[in-house]
Design brief:
By secondary structure, the protein is an alpha/beta fold. Helix 4 links the parallel strand 5 and strand 6. The protein is 37% helix and 24% strand. It has an 8-stranded mixed β-sheet with strand order 1-10-12-11-13-16-14-15, sandwiched between helices. Strands 3-2-9-5-6-7-8-4 form an 8-stranded mixed β-sheet. The chain contains 12 helices and 16 strands. The structure holds zinc ion. The site of zinc ion has 5 residues, from helix 7.
């Protein structure tokens, strides 16, 4: 009899708790889809401020704007964290053409981040097409005096477009470094885009440990441009390519991570980070990458305040500076946190675009992954189906608390690389409801880990 009563009590309290969780998620989603601020914040960030490359005026304005908006939410703390960031400036719009006998055929290119300029008259040279870094290593001295053209497309057979991105990005990141070792005079890299179009896609590249005197100009070419150049090269292997770029690197400048906190009601010393990155590339306005992640993170704080949810742990919204060309914000955040012996139990990043959320990927042990999966029934009504092992986010990557669950929001990836780092990553490419659903999914996950803790 007694046993039955205990069992009945436990059973009832589990059901009660399940109902309370379902109710909370319902409130979060209702709020997000009807009253949230994230879309209008993104409108301001994209259309009033615009691109936010580290060290630019746009980045500076974005720091001031997001700090002000966080202050208006009535959080317990809002502050800036100083961080020195690289400053690279594109300069004049690049020009490039294929010089086929006497014909000049213009093609769209953009300098890759950190690239040096060509000389003022531009650079003209023969082109050698390759499909991998290894091919350049094998060609060795044969690339001397030439422009190396990396033209391995992103794989179209992966359903996860991020996998295709990961498998093609080495050409952009290390293409110039490898080609320069063998005396190439420049590189052009096929844009990391699954679609054929006319947008060149920017992105970071690194000369590694080359001497400055060995640096060569490096640019991305649109996918249509890459197809055309490849076709023309098959017809005439001696054609030349002309490119002119005036980009420049400056000394590091002072910038900031923007941070807002709701202090935990039971465990203020346990920190849960929710974030995205405030900087963006300079060609579009960075609405998807990563304006979306910034406003979704801010929305988590707004919803907790408006729904009067008092978290047990400290919820810290972190808008990281300089993910795109240095991750200085993420590294500085970890450095500061370590020096204060802070204890992070959880970190969530949104940096895969503002598209329909499909799930989360987790960097954590089995027990916590199972825990997340025990909430699957709560997420299913909202079409969040995947709670899987995988990467989380570049900015929260440096975090090294002893016991931490890291998670990344996984939106549908099919259209992301149509816009990623390109001139068309603009506010009109954002769907309001998709953005809001992402914010709601994030707030739900943060709520559940806050309420039940990590194992
Ligand atoms: Zn990003």
């Amino acid at each position: 009899m007694k046993k039955n009563i205990v069992f009945c009590f436990l059973f009832t309290s589990v059901i009660y708790s399940q109902n309370a969780d379902q109710q909370m998620l319902k409130e979060i989603y209702n709020y997000s889809l009807t009253q949230s601020k994230c879309y209008s914040w993104l409108d301001d960030l994209s259309n009033k401020i615009g691109s936010r490359l580290s060290g630019s005026v746009g980045a500076e304005k974005a720091v001031i704007y997001t700090k002000q908006q966080l202050e208006m939410l009535g959080l317990d703390k809002v502050y800036l964290q100083e961080v020195m960031v690289p400053k690279w400036v594109r300069g004049e719009k690049e020009t490039a053409y294929i010089l086929d006998k006497k014909n000049k055929i213009n093609v769209p290119i953009c300098a890759l981040g950190g690239s040096i300029a060509t000389d003022k008259k531009g650079l003209t040279a023969e082109v050698i097409e390759v499909h991998s870094l290894k091919e350049v290593e094998e060609l060795g001295e044969k690339v001397k005096g030439k422009i190396v053209f990396y033209n391995r497309p992103m794989e179209s057979f992966n359903v996860d477009a991020f996998k295709s991105y990961g498998n093609a990005a080495d050409q952009r990141h290390s293409g110039a470094k490898i080609a320069a070792k063998y005396g190439a005079v420049g590189t052009i890299v096929r844009s990391l885009n699954l679609r054929l179009d006319d947008f060149p896609h920017a992105g970071a590249q690194s000369y590694g440990d080359l001497q400055k005197s060995q640096y060569i100009p490096t640019a991305a070419i649109s996918t249509n441009g890459a197809e055309l150049l490849s076709k023309k090269l098959k017809e005439n292997g001696n054609l030349k390519f002309y490119m002119k770029m005036s980009c420049q690197s400056f000394d590091d400048v002072l910038s900031y991570n923007v941070i807002g906190e709701i202090t935990g009601s039971e465990h203020p010393e346990k920190i849960m980070v929710v974030g995205g990155h405030l900087d963006s590339w300079d060609l579009g306005d960075g609405s998807h990458d990563d304006g979306a992640g910034v406003v979704q993170s801010m929305e988590v704080a707004e919803m907790f305040k408006k729904l009067n949810y008092k978290p047990k742990n400290t919820i810290r919204i972190v808008l990281f500076m300089n993910e795109e060309n240095g991750v200085r914000g993420g590294k500085e955040y970890e450095k500061q946190s370590k020096s204060k012996s802070e204890n992070h139990i959880f970190a969530l990043e949104s940096d895969e675009g503002g598209f329909t959320p499909r799930g989360f990927s987790f960097e954590c042990d089995e027990a916590n992954l199972q825990k997340a999966n025990s909430w699957k029934y709560l997420f299913e009504p909202y079409l969040i189906e995947n709670l899987i092992k995988g990467g989380s986010g570049v900015d929260i990557g440096p975090l090294t608390s002893a016991k931490i669950v890291k998670a990344g929001l996984n939106p549908d990836s099919q259209r992301y690389f149509d816009y990623h780092h390109a001139g068309n990553d603009r506010f009109d490419a954002i769907n309001k409801r998709e953005l809001e659903l992402g914010a709601a999914a994030m707030a739900s996950l943060v709520f559940l880990f806050d309420k039940y803790g990590i194992d």
